[in-house]
Design a protein that fits this description.
Number of domains: 3
CATH class of the largest domain: Alpha Beta
Bound molecules: iron/sulfur cluster
Distance between the termini: 66 Å
Strand order of the largest sheet: 2-1-3-4
Structural class: alpha/beta
Number of helices: 21
Order of helices and strands: HHHHHHHHHEHHEHHEHHEHEHEHHEHEH
Radius of gyration: 22 Å
Helix content: 40-55%
Largest sheet: 4 strands, parallel
CATH topology of the largest domain: Rossmann fold
Length: 410
């Protein structure tokens, strides 16, 4: 662990923590595992200790002679395990009264651990899959748009050479059968509104977010260059995402590698809210084709805390005839994580499930019959928990609910 791997402000952050414990109180991993070691407060203190132990004058001197001291490796492995048992939900950063930039710090700690061989071994598969197949599931990337064949009324020419808007589907929506309903629904909405759009099919590669979360950002450059070139080749001025993690990496990391000038990046909920405002969509009235429905909305971490999109999904829900929105105890800025982020499902599936349980229980307490969200990974995590436990709840992406509520042609 090298102190030089961290920025000056990150090193300052280690001393700036006041040990107020607020991050410990909100951390969904701490609550689900009943383990304070997983909190930002304890991780920061451990990191400070590790950097102090490993960056003394003599270590630098030894390294200058090419000698790498091997002391303390087991504790670094333990620290690595702890750091990766985190969903990167960002609530610790959101609550921290000192304003410590914790989320980027966790990413940089992961990078430093991975660089030095202290990340969980499973993370290596992510890089192998992305480099070999260009998608996180190691599927044939030529099959990335095969979900179109499963649409009841698939529009023709969804993969076009040129369009104003590119719909970037993301790996989960493209390959995971349950989540494939989400791109199908957004396509239905965009066609209904007469939007000029295309998908990129096999030319779309994984956005690279799983590499970032697994501490391997050094493999991002080719992916980013490829995806940006493919979007530009289609002369698009806008890219729309149903996956908040794809949106976040495009917004925050892609500009470090590529020129995105003239390219608007939006989440589907932002685009659809605009369509609703412009009255470009017509919905069935509650007493005609659509049943009244009580829903609760789950803010995905990467869309809410990550991209500050809180209001647009609620605006859409309020515009749907017959739909009543009830809020969970934790919503908006402090929405509880569903356990699906940060590659946690791969690293520690039991912890991911325990987090999903807390989320679903909170949703159940509202009395809603449907959990609506705006992320294919959240849909996957919560649906898996609901089905396994045979709970009488439906989990839908907002695009699915909107598509269901479109007025049927007369
Ligand atoms: S990012 Fe979320 S899960 Fe990770 S330490 Fe912070 S609050 Fe806990
Ligand atoms: S909320 Fe911020 S200041 Fe308080 S213990 Fe956590 S990291 Fe430290």
């Amino acid at each position: 662990m090298r102190a030089s791997a961290f920025s000056f402000s990150q090193r300052l952050a280690l001393d700036a923590c006041t040990h107020c414990g607020q991050c410990l109180n909100v951390c969904p991993a701490v609550a689900a595992a009943n383990d304070a070691e997983l909190s930002a407060e304890v991780r920061l203190a451990r990191l400070k200790g590790l950097l102090r132990d490993r960056n003394a004058f003599f270590q630098n001197l030894l390294e200058s002679f090419g000698i790498v001291p091997g002391h303390g490796a087991p504790s670094l492995d333990e620290y690595g395990t702890s750091v990766f048992r985190c969903s990167l939900c960002g609530d610790c950063q959101e609550i921290c009264p000192v304003g410590l930039p914790l989320k980027d710090l966790w990413l940089d700690v992961r990078r430093e651990l991975a660089t030095n061989g202290h990340a969980p071994a499973k993370t290596k598969a992510i890089r192998a899959n992305l480099e070999g197949s260009h998608n996180v599931f190691d599927e044939d990337n030529d099959e990335r748009a095969d979900w179109i064949d499963n649409m009841r009324k698939a529009p023709r020419n969804l993969v076009r050479r040129q369009a104003d808007t590119v719909y970037f589907t993301g790996c989960v929506g493209a390959y995971f059968p349950l989540a494939q309903k989400i791109p199908m629904a957004l396509v239905q909405i965009l066609v209904n509104a007469g939007t000029d759009f295309t998908i990129m099919g096999a030319d779309e590669w994984c956005c690279g977010f799983p590499l970032l979360g697994s501490g391997q950002p050094d493999a991002l450059a080719d992916i980013i260059a490829h995806n940006v070139a493919e979007v530009k080749r289609r002369k698009a001025s806008r890219v729309v995402f149903t996956c908040p993690s794809c949106l976040q990496i495009w917004k925050e990391v892609y500009p470090r590698y590529a020129d995105l000038e003239g390219l608007e990046l939006v989440h589907a909920s932002e685009l659809v809210a605009g369509l609703v405002r412009d009255k470009a969509l017509t919905f069935a009235q509650a007493d005609e084709q659509a049943e009244p429905l009580v829903v609760t909305y789950h803010d995905p971490c990467d869309l809410g805390r990550g991209s500050r999109v809180f209001e647009e999904p609620r605006e859409i829900l309020r515009a749907l005839p017959g739909v009543q929105l009830v809020e969970m105890a934790h919503h908006g800025r402090h929405s509880l994580c569903c356990g699906g982020g940060g590659n946690l499902e791969m690293i520690d599936p039991a912890l991911s499930t325990a987090m999903a349980r807390r989320k679903v229980e909170e949703a159940q307490a509202t009395g809603a019959t449907t959990i609506v969200t705006t992320c294919q990974q959240c849909v996957r995590t919560m649906t898996t928990y609901v089905r396994r436990n045979k709970l009488g709840l439906e989990v839908l992406d907002l695009a699915q609910l909107v598509a269901k509520r479109l007025a049927k042609p007369a």
